[in-house]
Each structure stands twice: as C-alpha cells, then as structure tokens.
Design brief:
The protein is mainly α and about 120 residues long. Helix content is about 55%, strand content about 5%. The protein is built from seven helices and two strands.
C-alpha cells in the first residue's frame, strides 16, 4: 500500500498576501485608506465627500471593517459623525505600499505601455 505524501499531511500555512487582501481588499477600503493617508483625520461626511460615488451604507460598513481590522480608529469620546476617523499605526504603515501603487499607476497611465487609451 502506498504511503501518503508527507506534504499532504502538513497543515497549510496562512498566506500573508491572502490575509492582506482579505483585510484591505475591495475598491472602497483602498480608497478610504488612500483618503486618510493623503488628507489625515476626517469626519464621516468628509470621507463621504472625498471618496467619489461611495454610498453612506458602504462607507459605514467599510469603516467598521477597517476599524475591526485595527487600521482605522475614532478619537475617544462621543462616537458620532463629527468624531474624526484616523489611521492607526498599522494603518499608517500602508504608506509605502500606496507609494508603490502610485509609481505603478503612473506607468499604467503612461503612453505606450500597451493599455488601451
């Protein structure tokens, strides 16, 4: 009887890239993080205005998810729409990634890169 492959019996290790995508993936989360990185702390309505086409429902849901993930926080005290949202230290650590995306995005938008105009 053949022996089972030892690799099949090892527990799967979590993939850091997959975990990162699960935490910050999606159009709205990335745009909210970008807004907070570029503009600093913002109140709910400021975020609603700064992220084009996001609905209030999506903004609320995404802010809750980013807060639960430890990337965004609200100042202590009365938590309402006037209390600004800020990035945590973990959230601020995304800045180099966004700078890399800026560089890549410029290449993507440059003429002659093969992308449709």
């Amino acid at each position: 009887m053949p022996q089972p492959d030892a690799a099949l019996n090892r527990p799967l290790q979590p993939c850091p890239v997959e975990q990162a995508i699960q935490v910050i993936g999606g159009k709205w989360k990335l745009l909210l993080l970008r807004s907070l990185l570029l503009n600093g702390p913002q109140r709910y309505n400021e975020l609603l205005a700064s992220v084009t086409a996001i609905s209030a429902k999506e903004l609320t849901r995404n802010l809750r998810e980013l807060t639960a993930a430890g990337l965004v926080t609200q100042a202590p005290g009365r938590l309402d729409r006037t209390t600004p949202y800020t990035l945590t230290e973990l959230g601020e650590s995304l800045m180099p990634i966004f700078k890399s995306m800026l560089t890549w995005g410029r290449k993507l938008l440059s003429p002659g890169n093969g992308s449709p105009s």
